[in-house]
Design brief:
Layout (H helix, E strand, L loop, with lengths): L1 E7 L2 E5 L5 E5 L20 E3 L4 H13 L2 H17 L8 H17 L3 E2 L4 H7 L1 H18 L6 H12 L6 H21 L8 H18 L12 H10 L1 H18 L4 H20 L7 E2 L2
Helix pairs in contact: 2-3, 3-6, 5-6, 6-8, 7-8, 7-10, 8-11, 9-11, 10-11
Length: about 290
């Protein structure tokens, strides 16, 4: 296999014999290598076939930024998950979940907890994935000597749900297009947001969850808060983020015919406010964010 790009000592981007780009991992596989060199199949321990160019760029960025200990640890978690699910999982789960774990540990050590507004929904709709999320959380706490609130298991479950390969191509395309449109709206209003944060990751995971529910014909209103006072408070305290959420609401309605209503807009506002707070450097320590 020909090396297209060296990511780090343990990961390289290659062109396989079928002309497809892959990310491959192995001990020292990128050490003193450069583009144009070859990789022996015997040296490859893990292969990630990623057809989506945006996902590939994201994976390369993650591999460059997070310590390898998280990749190796997460690989063992994903193997455990694969053995207990009857659905195929996207190969990218190892890397995206590793990034989530890394960011979550950093956030927790800075004294910040994240409340998961979808936790009760996962208990009802995805009990198996949530059970696996709880297992992963236990292993994380043991490995890194840290303690999380139970909500973190829900975020891990969301990664597992989003990595499932049981949607047809047409549905995946629609989901990807809808998410991309929502992200474009957000980045147009807030061009300085940092995409390499856990808050941005939670925002995109929320968009994936909403999109999958819409295109599978499942109701999503049950995951929204129906507290009118809370909705009003959120929208009043984050007026710019609320306007962005309203633009996203209109886009989703025009694209899918589905209205997320004021309840969905409020939750969207909370996610965007978390992102802009990090971009502004205004998140302090010992905070708990709720929807």
């Amino acid at each position: 296999m020909e090396i297209l790009r060296v990511i780090n000592n343990s990961n390289v981007c290659v062109l396989d014999e079928y002309g497809k780009e892959q990310i491959v991992s192995g001990k020292g596989i990128g050490f003193k290598k450069k583009a144009g060199d070859t990789v022996c199949k015997e040296d490859i321990q893990k292969t990630y076939l990623v057809t989506d160019s945006d996902m590939q760029r994201r994976m390369i960025q993650i591999l460059q930024e997070i310590p390898e200990v998280y990749i190796k640890f997460t690989d063992s978690l994903v193997e455990y998950i694969r053995e207990r699910l009857d659905r195929k999982l996207n190969e990218s789960l190892v890397i995206t979940l590793a990034a989530h774990i890394c960011f979550s540990i950093k956030r927790k050590r800075n004294g910040v907890d994240m409340i998961n507004p979808l936790l009760d929904t996962f208990k009802r709709c995805y009990p198996k994935e949530l059970e696996l999320g709880n297992y992963c959380l236990e292993q994380i706490e043991k490995k890194f000597h840290i303690s999380f609130i139970p909500d973190e298991a829900g975020f891990i479950a969301m990664h597992i749900i989003n990595a499932r390969c049981d949607n047809d191509y047409n549905e995946k395309y629609k989901i990807t297009k809808l998410i991309g449109g929502c992200i474009k709206i957000t980045e147009t209003r807030f061009p300085n947001i940092n995409k390499c944060t856990d808050s941005y990751e939670y925002f995109t995971d929320y968009l994936k969850y909403i999109a999958k529910r819409i295109y599978s014909g499942k109701d999503i209103t049950s995951v929204f808060t129906h507290n009118k006072d809370l909705i009003k408070s959120v929208n009043n305290n984050h007026s710019l983020e609320y306007k962005c959420s309203e633009d996203i609401r209109k886009y989703i309605l025009e694209t899918t015919g589905y209205d997320i209503m004021s309840e969905g807009t409020a939750l969207m506002t909370v996610h965007i406010a978390r992102i802009t707070a990090e971009a502004d450097g205004s998140q302090g320590e010992n905070q708990t964010f709720t929807a």
